[in-house]
Specification:
Length: about 130
């Protein structure tokens, strides 16, 4: 892993301040969704709310994980497709001198909305919740 050779000695150094803010904000929002589901369930008396909350939060966390792959300072521009090449496009963390910065709120493949849709597509497949996410 070469990032320490370039001064990236801790995990947070792989992200710009703006990227860290986006990741932190989305993480905080996932926690808020968790609380909201439990609050709604408590008011309605739903006994299965814990399992439902865990499933929703897990799927949102998987989407955030997919998004974090293209929200780092180790991404590059894939000019032939017009998209951001993810941090883990190969088996090593490649240092890029000029990184491509994705829009977390965009509707393209780099946005959180598309990451959620990607996880949802897996779940829509037959056996998706058992086989597709493993």
């Amino acid at each position: 892993m070469t990032p320490p050779l370039y001064g990236m000695t801790t995990f947070d150094r792989l992200f710009s301040p703006r990227q860290l803010l986006a990741l932190t904000t989305f993480s905080d929002l996932i926690r808020a969704v968790r609380r909201q589901i439990l609050d709604d369930a408590a008011r309605s008396g739903d006994r299965d709310s814990e399992a439902y909350m865990r499933a929703i939060v897990t799927y949102l966390a998987l989407a955030l994980d997919k998004a974090a792959n293209v929200w780092s300072s180790l991404t590059s521009w894939k000019s032939d497709d017009g998209v951001v090449r993810g941090t883990f496009a190969r088996q090593a963390l490649a240092i890029v001198w000029v990184y491509a910065e994705a829009n977390p709120f965009g509707t393209t493949s780099e946005g959180f909305e598309r990451a959620v849709a990607s996880v949802s597509e897996v779940l829509d497949e037959p056996g998706g919740s058992q086989a597709g996410l493993c």
